[in-house]
Design a protein that fits this description.
Layout lengths: L5 E5 L6 H12 L7 E4 L11 E11 L2 H11 L6 E6 L8 H14 L11 E8 L2 E9 L20 H12 L6 E4 L6 H9 L2 E6 L2 H13 L6 E3 L11 E5 L10 H12 L4 E6 L4 H6 L2 E11 L2 E13 L19
Parallel strand pairs: 4-5, 7-8, 7-10, 8-9, 10-11
Antiparallel strand pairs: 1-2, 1-3, 3-6, 5-6, 11-13, 12-13
Bound molecules: S-adenosylmethionine (SAM).
Length: 332
C-alpha cells in the first residue's frame, strides 16, 4: 500500500454509492474502496456529503508496538487533546481492545486530555494490516443548516446530490468559474458558496430567482443570480451544472431540454447534467462527449431516479468562435 498524506473515510446510503464513487473520482482522481481512500489531495470533509472523516497521517507502521514507540519518540506535548479510534473496513479489533489502544496513545502524549471540548483530536486506525496515527478532521455537517432555507420547492434537488455536483463540476479547484444554469431556489448555489466555490446562478423564472437570492442572503452568501433564459447568458464558464426541469411545473418537454443543453454548451466546454430520463441523444446532438454517467435512486421510490451525466465538448467538432448572441441579464 502506498502511504499518502491523508486517509479518508466515507459514509453513504446504498442508493448513493455510484454518486459517491463519481464524486471521489473528480476530487481525488480515484474512487473510494470499502469506504476508505488514501490520497495526497487535501479535501475539506464538510465540502462533501459522503466524506465523513479525514486523517492527516503523522505515523504509520505494520507493527502496533512500533507505532506507539514512534508517537512516544515524537514527544507530543499538547493540552486539551482527545484520541479517537477510527473503525475502518476489515478491522476486527474488539471494543475492549480499542479502548486499550486509546489508553496507550493517551499515555504517549504529554498534556491534559479534554474529551468534551478538545483543542485537537488525534486518531488511530488499522487498515489492511497497517496501523495509522494522525490528526482527525471531521465533517461537521454544519451545511445541514441549508435544509432550513427560507424557500424550497418540490423541484429542489437533494442536498447530498447538490454537493456532489459542485465537486464533480469543480474537480477540486475552487478557482474554476461555475454556473448553475437552472438554479431554481439555489440549492446547488448554497453548497457551492458554503464550500468556497466560485459559482453563479441563472433561472428563467423571476420568482425562484428572487427566492434563490433570499436563500443566499439568509446565510450571508453573495453571488450573482441572473433572471434569464440560459440562451441570453454571454459569459463563459469553466463548467456548468444543469438540473433539468423534469415535470409539468417546470416544463420538461424535449424542445426545452434540447434548448437548455445546447445553449449551455455554447458558454462552457464542460457540463454536469441532472435528468430523470435518458438524454444521451440530446448530449451527442449538442456536440458533447459523455465522460461519466451514474444514477441515484430515491430511497423508498424505486421507480424515480436522478441520472447524472458528465459531458465535455467534443474537440473534433467545429466550435462556435465567440459568444455573439443577443440577450439581456436581469437582476429583477
Ligand atoms: C429542476 S428545476 C431546478 C431546481 C434547482 N436545482 C433547485 O434545487 O432549486 C429546473 C429549473 O429550470 C428552470 N428553467 C427552465 N427553462 C430554463 C431556461 N431556458 N433557462 C434557464 N432556466 C430555465 C426552471 O425555471 C426551473 O426552476
Amino acid at each position: 500500500m502506498q502511504i499518502t498524506n491523508y486517509l479518508y473515510s466515507f459514509s453513504y446510503a446504498k442508493t448513493e454509492s455510484e454518486l459517491c464513487k463519481l464524486e471521489s473520482k473528480y476530487i481525488f482522481n480515484e474512487e473510494e474502496k470499502n469506504k476508505v481512500l488514501f490520497s495526497d489531495v487535501k479535501a475539506e470533509p464538510s465540502s462533501s456529503a459522503f466524506i465523513k472523516k479525514r486523517l492527516d497521517i503523522i505515523f504509520s507502521s505494520d507493527d502496533y508496538a512500533k507505532l506507539i514507540a514512534k508517537i512516544k519518540k515524537e514527544n507530543l506535548c499538547v493540552d486539551g487533546f482527545k484520541v479517537e479510534y477510527l473503525v475502518l473496513h476489515g478491522d476486527t479489533t474488539e471494543y475492549a481492545g480499542r479502548l486499550d489502544k486509546l489508553k496507550d496513545i493517551g499515555y504517549s502524549i504529554n498534556g491534559t486530555p479534554d474529551y468534551y471540548k478538545p483543542t485537537i483530536t488525534y486518531a488511530v486506525c488499522c487498515y489492511e494490516g497497517l496501523w495509522f496515527f494522525g490528526i482527525l478532521v471531521k465533517n461537521k455537517f454544519d451545511w445541514y443548516k441549508h435544509k432550513q432555507k427560507p424557500f424550497s420547492y418540490s423541484n429542489s434537488i437533494n442536498i447530498n446530490i447538490a454537493k456532489a455536483l459542485v465537486n464533480i463540476a469543480a474537480k477540486a479547484n475552487k478557482e474554476k468559474r461555475l454556473l448553475d444554469t437552472c438554479c431554481g431556489v439555489g440549492t446547488i448555489l448554497l453548497e457551492a458558496c458554503f464550500a468556497g466555490n466560485n459559482m453563479e446562478g441563472c433561472d428563467i423564472n423571476w420568482k425562484v430567482c428572487r427566492q434563490a437570492r433570499q436563500n443566499l442572503a439568509h446565510f450571508n452568501y453573495t453571488t450573482n443570480v441572473y433572471r434569464s433564459d440560459i440562451k441570453d447568458i454571454r459569459t463563459r464558464y469553466d463548467a456548468a451544472i444543469i438540473d433539468l426541469p423534469y415535470n409539468l411545473f417546470s416544463c420538461a418537454d424535449n424542445d426545452t431540454i434540447k434548448h437548455i443543453i445546447e445553449s449551455t454548451a455554447e458558454i462552457t466546454d464542460r457540463l454536469v447534467i441532472v435528468s430523470t430520463s435518458d438524454i444521451a441523444t440530446f448530449i451527442s446532438n449538442a456536440g458533447l462527449t459523455l465522460s461519466d454517467h451514474c444514477s441515484v435512486s430515491k430511497s423508498g421510490k424505486a421507480n424515480f431516479a436522478r441520472r447524472i451525466w458528465v459531458c465535455e465538448k467534443d474537440s473534433n467538432r467545429p466550435q462556435t468562435e465567440s459568444i455573439n448572441r443577443p440577450g439581456c441579464l436581469s437582476e429583477i
